[in-house]
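Section 4.2 – Deliverable D4.2 (structural model, holo form)

The reporting period included a commitment to supply a predicted holo structure for the target in complex with 2'-O-acetyl adenosine-5-diphosphoribose. Inputs used:
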Amino acid sequence: MGSDVFNFPAQLLNVLRSASRVTVLTGAGISAESGVPTFRDAQTGLWAKYKPEDLATPEAFQRNPRLVWDWYAWRREQLGGVAPNAGHLALAEMEQRLPGFTLVTQNVDGLHQRAGNRRVVELHGNITRTKCFDERCLVESWEETGEVPPHCPSCGGNLRPDVVWFGEALPPEAFAQALSASRACELFLSIGTSSLVYPAAALPHEALEHRAVVVEINPNTTPLSLQASYCFRGPSGQILPALLKEAWSDSPSL
Ligand code: OAD
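Output (structure tokens):
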């Protein structure tokens, strides 16, 4: 698809080129073109097939730790076979070009880091890390006894993935960084998120209140759409490289 199809306004291109601070919030949609399922898309979303209350709450883990551990192990395995897509790569290039760039993600898949982004604020944790359910400390290695889930080498409690479940607080430091980057930026891009899950969904509103230009990139409308300064409808793997190409015609990614 040619970049002219998206009709990027000159004002947006100027802000992107000249902003001293740009903040990006990503959701599951940025990884969709890598083959990672989103959560809420009809038919293909994980929450269309599975119930979050069975798999993504502390209570679910206490009720059936084996089921929950195995579900995350299956998702981790799926991620081993996928690669960052053109949208991830465009954001890695943006980080290189823009000194005041902050990437905040709700994703736990680690694809931004694999694409080359060095500074990633992870609001919902990372599926490749493991922590102790009781002590909450990160655990890097444990004895493989065949028990599922495995046990914490320090207290013997159950190990769990280091992801944020429904009903749990976000990692405070990550959220504080995300909030200040949203309040301080001149340009905020909301990419591939349904804008339904708080507190992450509050970040573009913080940016708007602090007079940032807010852009939504998503094939579908969301609760943010009406308030965003600009919306681009389509897959982020096409829109982001096109945006980079328009802003910096020497962009090597195209
Ligand atoms: P959702 O599944 O709620 O939303 C994914 C969004 O991506 C939708 O708005 C889609 O329209 C859009 N989308 C689909 N394909 C796309 C593409 N190729 N390019 C761009 N956008 C595309 O995922 P999130 O908003 O990330 O939380 O969900 C937020 C949180 O809810 C997740 O982090 C997860 C979930 O429950 C936890 O696990 C704590």
